Amino acid sequence: MKKFAVLFCLACVLISVQGIPALAKEDPLARWKPAFDPSGARFTYLLSCVGHPAIEGVAVGFRIRDRVWELTEGELYVDFRPLSQLGGEKDVINKLKFGAVQGMMSSSVAAANIAPRLGIVNLPFVIDSFDKLDAFRNDSELWGPFRDAARKQNLSVVDFTGYGSYGWATTSPVDTLEDAKRINFRIAQAPVNIDAYKGWGLQFTVMPWPDVPQALQTGVISGLDHTPIVCNISKKFTVARHYTLLDYAQGLYVHIINQRWLDKLPNQLRDTLLKVIAEESAEARKQTRRQQEEQIAAARRDGVTFHTLQPGERQFLTTQARKLDATWGEKIGQDYLDLVRNRLNQ
Questions:
Q1: Helix (H, G, I), strand (E, B), or coil: what is residue 8?
Q2: pTM for the full model?
Q3: Which band of pLDDT confidence, cut at 50, 70 and 90, is reported for residue 9?
Q4: Does 327 score more than 80 pLDDT?
Q5: Residue 187: CB partners within 8 Å, gap ≥ 6?
């Protein structure tokens, strides 16, 4: 019995000693912890995001945190919480409106639930390339109405970053629309996406992101509507070994702030915060282009096969998507939608 007790104690010691570093390695945010003590900050900006900071468009939150801390000499602390630490996006949107959360980097698919005009970035084949996205952001006539879309709800869109170009990750090859019709696609809980997939005549399941891994592994779904960056970083390509490059929309993290909180911030701190957000968001958009190329190359090396549709079939998707104007043109504002399309297609 004594021998057993000694062995048991030794085992406990080994577990405690060896387990501590193992647990530390499991902390997905360990490498992004601040190199300063934020407890002395006069003001705190609580900023939420569902994404993983391995994505450049998410990691920008930490770069904003560190620069704001330095430039305000520790007066303003950006308490950035990625990985859904503050809840799912619908829940955080409600907290944002009431001021319990001061800021949110909302996925573009969820942003349309805040204000329909924000759904313009999800309409297929409107802002469908990195170049068009930059042109949209840098044109005040296009950016202004988007920026102010949620003002009636006391929310301001201050900028956005991205997570790449949308396409299809699937468990079997999709080279044609007939192939696509055999796939059950997971799509986000977003009204624009639902209408688009209905118009394309494709099977789809609306599903929260946390449910996707099990659904993909068990065959409940056989495809994902998402970007190469997200699919590779989140290991979805371990099951879905094919990807069809559609580039029909740009995935964004839309940076939204509670306007009442922003108005109460001292002028100098407010100006510094907005300046840093703009500068770091612009840099993050550049890094997203690079990251998409890197993630596609990495997926190819790992054996993922990439596909494209024939021009005629892509044109069918584009034509069907234009029919969404009947409903979304009214919600977004047909004049604004036409202006965006015409300006970006010049």
A1: helix
A2: 0.90
A3: very low
A4: yes
A5: 193, 194, 197, 204, 205, 206, 207, 225
